[in-house]
Amino acid sequence: MTDDQLTVAVLGTGIMGAAMARNLARAGHAVRAWNRTRAKAEPLAADGAHVADTPADAVGPADVVLTVLHDGPATLDTVRRAAPALRPGTVWAQSTTAGPDDVTGLAALAREHGLLFYDAPVLGTRQPAEAGQLTVLAAGPAEGRERVTPVFDAVGTRTVWTGDDGAAGSATRLKLVVNSWVLAATSAVGESLALAEALDVDPDGFLDLVRGGPLDMGYLHAKAGLIRSGQLSPAQFAVTTAAKDARLIVRAGEQHGARLDVAAAGAERLERAAAQGHGDEDMAAAYYASFPD
Length: 293
Known about the structure:
By secondary structure, this protein is an alpha/beta fold. It is 49% helix and 14% strand.
């Protein structure tokens, strides 16, 4: 192993975590993977990863710990379980989409154990994650960046540094702003197609009318294509995860004096689609929330 090759513990091997772990292994890093449901981590053994039984087993020899779990509370619980095996000075990059208040708690846990903490959520879905083409939003101390940069380089094509203090959550705050736009656009695509169906309007007429103009966007055609073809699995970004993010966005707005009506309605829409059985499908499946069960 060269100086640029690290031992990286990846805690959480869902859609994003598994793809990130594979790209770390392909880059020559030693990967130790853990997931609450071990079966989700097992396929990584074929990529050379060591599949650990516990978070503590995963992090013991790690230079860098990368957390890619469902939310802030799950991340806090998992790292607490790993804490007895963590060595002071270990780098912890948290790539979970969490709330700003969650990041404050995670950073406090890092200080308690002498870890170098980086708030590092990522932009991208399944396909760019698998291709190693994520954008990493990162905040954290300059003195440890040479150790965490090879990890970011292995999973993404661009790292945007938002500050020197990971505890401030500047990367997470930017991620929530971006996700608010993504989720609003997703809801708009689904509702426009649902209205077209309700009014007996050919969706091609709508899509052709906006194509190439100031109202057009590639995202519209991509998500509309998924809905119209029914190719909503495997999810690029699942309905249940999008609903969780929408609630984080609403809560962050409330805590800082901003009422976010579109985000609140989007969360309800996603939750309704999940209740209809679409929770594991791509978030474009929120389209079905427009229709009775």
